[in-house]
Design a protein that fits this description.
The complex is a heteropentamer of chains A (166), B (475), C (638), D (498) and E (99).
Chain A (H helix, E strand, L loop, with lengths): L1 H21 L3 H21 L3 H26 L10 H20 L15 H19 L2 H22 L3
Helix pairs in contact in A: 1-2, 2-3
Chain C lengths: L2 H23 L3 H24 L4 E11 L2 E9 L1 H24 L6 H20 L3 H19 L6 H32 L4 H5 L1 H7 L3 E4 L2 E4 H16 L8 H4 L5 H10 L4 H8 L1 H6 L1 H24 L3 H21 L3 H28 L17 H15 L6 H15 L3 H26 L6 H6 L5 H22 L6 H7 L14 H28 L4 H9 L1 H7 L4 H48 L6 H21 L1
Antiparallel strand pairs in C: 1-2, 3-4
Helix pairs in contact in C: 1-2, 1-4, 2-3, 2-4, 3-4, 3-11, 3-16, 3-21, 4-5, 5-6, 6-9, 9-12, 9-14, 11-16, 12-15, 12-16, 14-15, 14-19, 14-25, 15-16, 15-18, 15-19, 16-17, 16-18, 16-21, 17-19, 17-21, 18-19, 18-21, 18-23, 19-23
Chain E lengths: L2 H21 L3 H25 L4 H31 L13
The chains are: A mainly alpha (166), B mainly alpha (475), C mainly alpha (638), D mainly alpha (498), E mainly alpha (99).
């Protein structure tokens, strides 16, 4: 049963992302991207990372996508479609395929060797994903959390400076 | 826990000062915006003094998340130098180009915090986030001059290619994390030592991550963005961008490579030696073909990244000390040169940074052209000046670890490099003035140039003080 | 140590004239110069007398060149040979100095001329007085310099400028051989002093040694002596390098008299005589020397026959007489050579000064065809010139030339060189012929150029007195020093210098000596008679007829055997072509091409790579992707 | 004062230059200031020469202070028999060059004289440096002022000449840097103490293997370019022709000697085995240089280029002497270096005088000027004869000792080299004839004879040229002991080798 | 479901994202493809986190999202300034700098 769900989600994710990059108008590709985000959220749930799935929907689908749509509406640019020159189009695709193939080559030998972490199945039931997530985030990964906040601060200042009309 | 706080004390201080800067910026009136810059300099000097590491100690914080030691401190000095000189250099530039905003200095300031995290990171997450903070700040700085379409193009190009490369870096990071089971350098190193390095997984992760880093230090196959971004960005920003982010990238890379990937040293030495040769040769050759001085200095920045890679490939302690020293010296030389370039106004028809606008400058502005001459010959690595000490250190590291062939390539390249550095002096001293180009050295930028010249001469003749700073570094 | 004074006097004169000449001394420079020469003449005579009494000097003035094991002093050696040379040099030099007062009377460079004369005298004395090979070489080159200066005295004339350069370069070629010989001496005897080089055991010890040069194993002594002899060829204008002497006539006549007759050219002979211990052992070189001497004598005489310029005739006669002396040294008759040098200096100096006064009279026109019948107008010059001709022809017994030349012929015959003896005997006849030809054409017969003849007048006293003074030794030198035959005063004195075996080697019975003498005298008289017939009885017919009859041979002799043209075609032109090729071809095209190529290649690569930077974002990202792909493949395989 | 005379000699010109830069505004004032400074420097070398102990082969007036202790780099200076003449030559020629360019340099006089003083400091420094790092810094630091002098005040093609000079020398010396670093580490690994001290490094033998050959080649390339030896000499004619008079005097008088000084101080003691192995190679190159230089000089149309090629030929003698590895060869080489400095320096000064008046260097434009300028002609003749190697002048003694030395080592080479004497006479006299003799070329107008100032600054050179010819012992006495020590060191290794 | 499946899926999505960046001329679509690549990375992180029985993978995802958000903000701000100057968001017209 679990495999069926995975294959459906995988299929949806791949097809929607393919449609996303091939649509002429940016609005359509934005909507297809929304579908991809939902598919990915589903996969997160399947990997029992529920909190992250929720964040995915909230942040990606909610915030970033809306921002894109907002900018697309603001600029309503003429759609340009694909690059005219077929040659650059083809080598672009071929290069990505090669990269994907090289990554897939590592699959045969990629079983997890590292020392397993502290998350045991019964601990997961008992604490629940979100509490474990909070425990990890605010103990070991406290410093990156602070850096992320500085990062967002800079992004804010920058966006204002660049976008504001003066 | 107490010890961990001390380990990020400098960063905390910087953040507090950063926030104060934002407040000052809001309060200051439009024409006194440069005050923000001067405050920034004061704050950074304060942090510099407050966090002096006594006797090369090592404070490991947050269960090996990051570490504050003389290594990180040395790079912090480089960032401080870059910040101070750029701020001084850009006060007049911003007024001249009508973009006299306080945020310029604030964002610059915050980018240094990102760099500090990068350099002191011993965990992949801190590394990645520090890297991204710096990157975001640099995207903004590159595109800062909204009205000038060149700065716009620089911003866009830097953003897209930067985001793409951080995507690749991240993808590699996941495989390194996945294969070793943890994001901590020490654990990664332990895993690599026990399980060996031949696994395809780790190779993929390693290549992808190092590719991401190679983008940051503009090594050749990943350098394409650098010339356009450096030529497009406002000149003081370019000066900053060629020094600070590159130093941070090298600092983080050295720590990551020497600590985390220490067992896989054969792999990454091969990786970087290929890159080093390509970067040096490409940077120098194309720089010869340029006749715009700013673009030429952009390519020279790429070639200098190549020289520093030699230090990295040497993979001994002398190597990374040499890189740190090289960065300090490079900071002075390069920002000094860009400050002067920034002040160049050309009433003639052509855009102001072409070689021809330098013609006959030594008659009108003897001091400015003397300073430019010193910077050019120091960049070329001619002895009495600091550039030579840097190169000398780097080549000693290479020869100490037996990489004589690489040293020879480096030496030949620095000989080729002399040609295009000399061309600037040819136009300045030997040719008659064609266009009425002029350099009005305003007080702030002349102080910056003066400091840079003094230090370039000082390090050239009495390098021992600066070598001692670098000597205590241990990764 | 009064001998040092001989050197210092001309040096002092040279410095005073040189430094103060232009501004202060100007036209009375001759007082200082003559004073200098007179002092050295007197001291030379004193030393000659003391040397006759057996007092020789070999002292070191100071250590000149010091380098590790090499110590070369600046030293003075005065022995019998030096004494003779001193007398010859100083006496003839004084005569020329006095003569020049008149000759150079109204010349703007008057003081410069006397400075150069003092330079020459000083350098010749250094050459003669030196006690080691290096001093000899120093004098050798300085004499070359002074001949350069003096030949090119009237430098406005292109021919004079070419002549002095030619003289210096040709001398330098000879000096190159001398240099190699010198180095060989230094390497074998570990010192350049005459005392070390000529002690008998050292030479015997080295007799068999060979020296590897460019792969060939030549006998050391022969190589060494041949090297030294090359120097002599250059300086004494022997066969291959004789071309410079006739051109040297461009200089003022006193110069030709002093340098190119009496003293400098004889330096080669002096050197060979001084190194007689070495040359005696080196048989191959001695043979070469004989044959070169013989051929030069023949060459000089044959060309001399056909010339019409009075000074050229005398120049070629000098070449021929030098050939005699060199042949004598080759045949081992060193004393005969020096004796001939001794006498030749006087009568050849006399002849040249005579021609100078003729030139003076004929407003510097030397073409013999325009002269004639001057005996009426210039009696002293005529008589002194006649004495000179008689002395040189060797046909008039008891004259100095007769003694010395016949002794050379006798010695050559005695030492078994029959063919050279025969050739030089014939050449003796030719010498007599062309000398008297010049006498008859100039002084006898009817004046051919009325206008010039009227202006001709006897030269002033300052010019005629030296002529008279010189004619005295020209007559009596042979008698005083030559009698009795083969062991006169000069023989006894010089036998100390010549290494032991001297004349003893090949003694001739008295009968053959007298027979040979008679034969050469007869040949000389025949030569004079033919000249008389040619140029007095039928001056207009015979010379032209024989010239036409001789045809190609005459043209060969007249054009100086085409040596100048040969050298120009086969040595100078190719050399210039090669160096032009080397400069334009190699230097500019090859090396500079490579050097510029580096710069060009870098620029080209730069401009090519520059186009990779297309400016489009996609290309940049694409290059990153390709970079990642390549590195992945390397790592997957590696 | 005597203890640190060398430091004074190095830093006095720099301080003077700095002082002039700050306080002297007008060109004229800087000119006289620079001249006085160079005279003081010359006077300062006198005590150095007189107090020099000729019997001690080792280094004298040694000063050693720590400079970069972490790397074992010291400020270590000292002078011995080999380098003392060169120091004197530098200070003498700079003083004369400065005096000589009073009328020659018209534009931007201030910068010119400051560059000259800095150049002088760097040159003196190179000859007395005993620490590799200090030596290399001064060796390359010298390039900048020289580059500027050629570039700013040079002739028509000055830019090409300046660039070619700079890059040519730099390409050579860049490999030298690697050799220095490699030596530093090798010496450190053998003896344990990491230092750049030249004497320590040269006292250590490096086994003659590939390492030593590579180090030797690196040094040799760097110095051969500077000498310049045959294949790498093409920068010299361009640099000489385009440089102003003072520039060519210093270039010919001192800069060329650094190459040969380098061979003596570095190649021979540090890599003796490789030097011995390469002896025939270098000898052949030197002989080619002699003949090639002379031949090419013969067909030059430009006087300065002719003298430049003659320098190639003279320096060929020096390298031949040095690589004869015997006392007379090396001493001849050093003396020839000294003489060449004086004679060629004087020749360039004289040509400069001519150029100042007629603004042309082409031989064809001249003819028969001896009648117009007799004093100039006589002095020019003296130095022409000196350059040919006429006895009673220094050139002859130098050449003689070199030929004696090389004759002992390789007789065939010496014979060919001796033939160079002929070509020397040919090209010099041919030039002299076409310029000074023959009929007066009416094209020349304001030809005036030498004035008093010009005679004054030529006079020391005339005195020296005769002094070295008549009594060379005053100069060769300095070097006997040092050269003997060097020769013994090499001979012992040579004996050990075979 | 084994780890390989998830890695394969993320690789494919990463490939598609890369193609999008390389191929599309519209800057905004390129941005979206960048976001897509970051999503692929997140899948990877989640997968490793699950099979390593550790939470640090998931924490990292959140950080990646924060970075993505920041990038989006700055990126779009840059696009707006570009649009104001050149009235175009076509990647090929952004080529003032060449050579």
């Amino acid at each position: 049963m679990e495999q069926v769900i995975f294959y459906i989600l995988a299929f949806v994710a791949i097809v929607s992302s393919l449609f996303m990059i091939t649509r002429n108008s940016p609005v359509h590709s934005a909507l297809w991207m929304l579908l991809t985000f939902f598919a990915v959220a589903g996969i997160f749930v399947q990997l029992d990372a529920e909190f992250v799935a929720a964040i995915q929907v909230l942040v990606y689908a909610g915030a970033i996508l809306v921002l894109y749509l907002f900018v697309v509406m603001l600029l309503n640019p003429k759609s340009h479609g694909f690059i005219k020159v077929p040659f650059r189009y083809v080598i672009g695709v071929v290069a990505s395929i090669i990269i994907v193939f090289q990554v897939l080559m590592t699959l045969k030998s990629s079983e997890v060797i590292g020392k397993l972490g502290w998350v045991t199945p019964q601990l997961a039931q008992e604490l629940g994903n979100v509490k474990m997530f909070g425990k990890e985030l605010f103990t070991t990964y406290l410093v990156p959390f602070e850096i992320a906040s500085i990062l967002l601060l800079i992004a804010m200042i920058g966006a204002i400076v660049l976008a504001k009309k003066d | 826990m107490g010890q961990s706080i001390v380990s990020i004390l400098p960063e905390i201080l910087m953040t507090i000062f950063g926030l104060m800067l934002i407040v000052i910026d809001v309060m200051s009136k439009d024409e006194k915006k440069s005050g923000v810059g001067y405050f920034g300099i004061a704050f950074i000097l304060l942090t510099l003094l407050a966090s002096v590491p006594v006797g090369g100690f090592k404070i490991v914080g947050f269960d090996q998340m990051l570490v504050w030691d003389s290594y990180a401190y040395a790079f912090f000095i480089v960032f401080a130098i870059a910040y101070i000189l750029t701020t001084l250099g850009s006060v007049d530039y911003l007024k001249a180009n009508g973009i006299n905003k306080g945020e310029y200095y604030t964002i610059l300031y915050f980018s240094i915090i990102g760099m500090m995290f990068m350099v002191s990171a011993t965990d992949l997450s801190v590394l990645y986030l520090g890297l991204e903070t710096m990157a975001i700040a640099m995207y903004i700085m590159a595109g800062f001059n909204k009205k000038d379409k060149r700065s716009n193009e620089a911003g866009i190009k830097y953003f897209i290619i930067g985001a793409f490369s951080s995507g690749i870096l991240l993808y590699g990071l996941t495989y390194v994390y996945g294969y070793t089971g943890s994001t901590k350098y020490s654990v990664i190193a332990e895993m690599l030592r026990t399980n060996g390095v031949e696994n395809l997984n780790i190779k993929l992760g390693l290549v992808m991550m190092l590719a991401g880093f190679a983008f940051k230090i503009s090594a050749v196959p990943f350098h394409m963005w650098a010339p356009d971004v450096y030529s497009g960005a406002p000149t003081p920003v370019t000066g900053f961008m060629t020094v600070a982010p590159k130093a941070a990238a090298f600092g983080a890379l050295i720590r990551f490579v020497m600590v985390a990937l220490e067992p896989a040293s054969v792999q990454w030495q091969l990786f970087f030696s290929i890159l080093a040769v390509l970067t040096m040769t490409y940077g120098n050759l194309v720089a010869i073909a340029q006749n715009n001085v700013k673009r030429m200095l952009a390519y020279s920045a790429i070639s200098h990244a190549g020289y520093m890679l030699i230090g990295l490939v040497a993979a001994n302690d002398l190597g990374y000390k040499a890189i740190a020293l090289y960065m300090i010296i490079y900071g002075f030389m390069n920002i000094g040169a860009f400050t002067i370039l920034g002040q160049l106004k050309n009433k003639g028809i052509i855009d102001d940074e072409r070689l021809e606008s330098f013609a006959g400058l030594s008659k009108k502005h003897p001091l400015a052209s003397l300073a430019m001459l010193i910077f050019m010959f120091s960049l070329a690595g001619i002895p009495p000046l600091a550039g030579f000490v840097g190169k000398f250190y780097i080549f000693s590291a290479a020869i100490k670890s037996g990489l004589v062939w690489l040293a020879i390539v480096g030496v030949v390249n620095s000989a080729i490099a002399c040609y295009y550095y000399m061309r600037v002096t040819i136009y300045m001293y030997f040719k008659e003035a064609e266009y009425d180009a002029s350099i009005e050295m305003k007080p702030a930028s002349s102080i910056a140039t003066f400091i840079a010249v003094v230090f370039v001469l000082l390090i050239g003749v009495f390098p021992s003080f600066f070598i001692n700073i670098v000597k205590m570094m241990i990764v | 140590m009064i001998e040092l004074l001989i050197l210092l006097a001309p040096l002092a004169a040279l410095l005073i004239n040189g430094i103060f000449g232009r501004l202060y001394i100007k036209n009375n420079a001759h007082y200082i110069a003559i004073a200098g020469v007179l002092v050295s003449l007197l001291v030379s005579l004193i030393t000659f007398v003391r040397v006759m009494g057996g007092h020789t000097v070999d002292t070191v003035v100071y250590e000149w060149v010091l380098a590790g094991d090499i110590k070369i002093p600046f030293g003075i050696l005065v022995d019998q040979l030096t004494a003779y040379m001193l007398v010859v040099v100083t006496f003839v030099s004084t005569m020329v100095h006095i003569y020049s007062i008149g000759y150079m009377h109204d010349d703007p460079g008057y003081w410069r001329f006397f400075t150069y004369l003092s330079i020459f005298t000083f350098s010749m004395l250094v050459l003669v007085l030196g006690n080691n090979f290096l001093m000899l070489f120093v004098g050798w080159e300085l004499v070359g310099l002074s001949s350069y200066l003096l030949i090119g005295f009237w430098y406005e004339k292109k021919s004079a400028a070419d002549a002095n350069k030619k003289a210096f370069v040709v001398n330098r070629i000879g000096d190159f051989g001398f240099y190699v010989g010198l180095l060989l001496v230094l390497v074998t005897f570990r010192s350049l002093n005459y005392s070390d080089a000529f002690n008998h055991e050292a030479i015997v010890h080295v007799k068999e040694a060979t020296f590897k040069v460019f792969g060939a194993n030549l006998s050391l002594l022969d190589l060494m002596t041949f090297g030294l002899f090359c120097g002599a060829i250059g300086k004494s204008a022997q066969f291959p390098l004789h071309v410079w002497l006739p051109d040297a006539m461009e200089g003022p006549t006193p110069v030709s008299a002093l340098i190119h007759a009496a003293t400098m050219v004889t330096a080669g002979v002096y050197m060979v005589a001084r190194c007689n211990p070495l040359f005696a052992e080196a048989h191959i070189t001695s043979n070469i020397v004989v044959y070169i001497g013989m051929f030069t004598a023949l060459l000089g005489a044959t060309i001399g026959l056909t010339q019409f310029d009075l000074k050229r005739i005398l120049a070629y006669s000098t070449v021929s007489q030098l050939g005699y002396m060199i042949m004598a040294t080759g045949a081992g008759a060193y004393i005969a050579a020096i004796f001939h040098l001794f006498t030749h200096a006087f009568f050849k100096g006399l002849l040249f000064l005579g021609s100078g006064s003729v030139m003076h009279a004929m407003e510097n026109d030397l073409d013999v065809r325009k002269m004639g019948g001057l005996k009426a107008k210039m009696p002293i010059t005529r008589w002194t010139y006649l004495i000179g001709c008689m002395a040189i022809s060797g046909a008039v017994p008891l004259m100095s030339g007769w003694f010395s030349k016949d002794e050379i012929l006798a010695m050559t015959f005695a030492s078994g060189h029959y063919f050279p003896w025969f050739v030089t005997a014939v050449v003796g006849g030719m010498t007599a012929f062309y000398m008297f030809r010049s006498y008859f054409l100039v002084f006898e017969g009817t004046p051919r150029d009325k206008h010039k003849f009227d202006h001709a007048h006897e030269s002033p006293l300052t010019m005629t007195v030296p002529l008279i003074l010189l004619s005295i030794p020209a007559i009596f030198a042979g008698l005083v020093f030559g009698l009795p035959l083969e062991n006169g005063i000069i023989h006894k004195m010089l036998s100390h210098v010549v290494a032991g075996h001297g004349e003893g080697g090949h003694h001739l019975s008295h009968a053959t000596t007298y027979g040979l003498m008679a034969l050469s005298t007869v040949i000389g008289i025949i030569g004079i008679y033919i000249a008389y017939v040619f140029y007095v009885q039928k001056p207009d017919v015979l010379p032209a007829k024989t010239a036409k009859a001789a045809g190609p041979i005459y043209k060969l002799f007249y054009n100086k055997w085409y040596f100048d043209e040969i050298y120009q075609a086969f040595i100078i032109n190719p050399l210039v072509m090669i160096s032009k090729f080397l400069w334009k071809g190699f230097d500019a095209n090859v090396i500079d091409f490579i050097v510029n190529a580096f710069g060009w290649v870098a620029k080209f690569l730069g401009s090519v790579l520059r186009h990779l930077q297309t400016g489009r974002i996609q290309t940049y990202i694409f290059s990153m992707v390709v970079g990642v792909i390549l590195l992945l493949t390397i790592f997957y395989i590696g | 004062m005597m203890a640190n005379i060398l430091t004074i000699l190095i830093f006095f010109p720099v301080l003077a230059a700095f002082f002039l830069f700050l306080f002297f505004r007008s060109g004229k004032a800087t000119m006289w200031g620079a001249f006085i400074a160079s005279i003081i420097e010359l006077v300062l070398t006198m005590p150095l020469m007189t107090n020099f102990d000729k019997s001690n082969p080792g280094m004298q007036f040694v000063e050693k202070y720590d400079w970069i202790s972490s790397f074992g780099i010291q400020y270590y200076v000292g002078v011995d028999g080999i380098s003392i003449l060169m120091v004197f030559l530098t200070t003498l020629l700079t003083a004369i060059a400065i005096l000589g360019s009073f009328t020659y340099i018209q534009k931007r006089q201030r910068e010119f004289y400051i560059a000259m003083l800095i150049l002088e400091a760097a040159m003196v420094g190179v000859f007395v440096a005993l620490d590799f790092f200090l030596f290399y810094i001064l060796w390359e630091a010298m390039l900048i002022p020289m580059y500027l002098i050629i570039g700013v005040w040079g002739g028509a093609r000055r830019i090409y000449a300046a660039v070619k000079f700079f890059l040519y020398t730099l390409a050579g010396s860049v490999f030298m840097m690697l050799a220095i670093i490699a030596l530093y580490f090798k010496h450190g690994s053998i003896t344990g103490n990491y230092t750049f001290d030249i004497l320590a490094i040269s006292s250590q033998s490096y086994g003659g293997g590939l390492f030593e050959t590579l180090v030797f080649l690196a040094f040799f390339v760097g110095f051969a370019i500077k000498v310049p030896m045959f294949p790498v000499h093409t920068w010299l004619p361009d640099a000489h022709v385009e440089a102003p008079t003072a520039g060519s005097v210093i270039l010919a008088g001192v800069l060329l000697k650094m190459g040969t000084y380098g061979l003596l101080r570095f190649c021979l003691p540090i890599t003796p085995i490789a030097s011995i192995n390469f002896m025939p190679f270098v000898a052949i190159l030197s002989v080619i240089a002699i003949i090639y230089g002379a031949l090419v000089a013969m067909v030059q149309e430009d006087i300065k280029k002719l003298v430049a090629y003659s320098s190639v030929s003279h320096m060929g003698f020096v390298t031949l002497g040095i690589y004869a590895f015997n006392q007379s060869g090396i001493e001849g080489g050093i003396l020839q270096m000294f003489n060449h400095g004086i004679i060629t320096g004087a020749l360039f000064l004289l040509i400069g005088l001519l150029y100042e008046r007629t603004h042309t260097r082409m031989i064809a434009d001249y003819g028969g000027i001896a009648s117009k300028v007799p004093v100039y002609a006589t002095i020019f003749l003296i130095f022409t004869m000196g350059s040919i190697g006429l006895p009673s002048m220094g050139g002859f003694i130098g050449e003689f000792l070199v030929l004696v030395g090389s004759f002992k080592a390789f007789s065939n080479m010496a014979i060919i080299a001796a033939s160079g004497v002929i070509f020397a006479a040919v090209y010099m006299l041919w030039m002299y004839q076409r310029v000074f003799f023959q009929s007066y070329n009416t094209g020349l107008h304001n030809l005036t004879d030498m004035n008093v100032r010009e005679v004054i600054y030529i006079m020391p050179l005339i005195i020296l040229v005769f002094w070295t010819g008549i009594y060379p012992e005053t100069f060769t006495s300095y070097m006997h002991e040092s050269v003997k020590q060097l020769v013994e060191q090499i001979q012992s290794i040579k004996v050990a080798m075979n | 479901m084994t780890l390989q499946h998830y890695l394969a899926l993320s690789a494919i999505i990463f490939g598609i994202g890369m193609t999008g960046v390389l191929v599309r001329r519209n800057l905004i679509v390129m941005f979206m493809s960048l976001e897509l690549m970051l999503n692929a990375v997140n899948i990877n992180l989640a997968a490793f986190s699950k099979y390593l029985h550790a939470m640090n993978g998931q924490v990292f995802i959140v950080f990646v999202m924060a970075v993505a958000a920041a990038e989006a903000a700055v990126g779009l701000a840059l696009i707006i300034t570009l649009f104001k100057n050149k009235e175009t968001i076509n990647a090929d017209e952004v080529n003032f700098f060449k050579g």
